[in-house]
Amino acid sequence: MSRGSTAARARRRSRAHARRTVNDPDEVGILARNYAMLRAQALNSEAVKGLLERLQGE
After folding, report:
1. What residues make up the domain containing 49?
2. Contact 31, 7 (CB under 8 A)
3. How far apart are CA 15 and CA 51, in angstroms?
4. What is the reported pTM?
5. Domain tally for the chain?
6. What angle do CA 12, 28, 20 make, to 5 degrees?
7. What is the pLDDT of residue 11?
8. 42 phi and psi, to 5 degrees?
9. Cα separation, 17 vs 35, whole angstroms
């Protein structure tokens, strides 16, 4: 399976389930990178919400 399809699957799962255990190493990596981007940017809550919505649309 290609990384692109794993990323798409991770986004679909992310939208479907806000809290769940993630076992797929590729998906964990994607989520960790997204989380690191949010932390590095130190955005206010409205900006974080907008960024999350954009990331889900990728």
Report:
1. 3-57
2. no
3. 14
4. 0.43
5. 1
6. 60
7. 64
8. 45, 55
9. 16
Length of the chain as a residue count? 58
Start-to-end CA distance of the chain, whole Å, equals 18
Q: Which residues, other chains included, contact 57 with Cβ-Cβ below 8 Å and sequence gap of 6+? A: none
Tokens found for residue 43:
């955005």
Sign of CA dihedral 45, 12, 29, 54: negative
Dump pLDDT digits (tens) for 7-58: 676 666 655 556 788 899 999 999 899 888 878 877 788 988 888 898 888 6
Q: Which residue has the tokens 């940017």?
A: 41
Q: Which two tokens stand for residue 2?
A: 């290609």
What angle, 0 to 180 degrees and rounded to 10, lies between the N-to-C axes of helices 25-41 and 45-57?
Answer: 150
Smallest Cα–Cα separation from 30: which of 53, 51, 55? 55
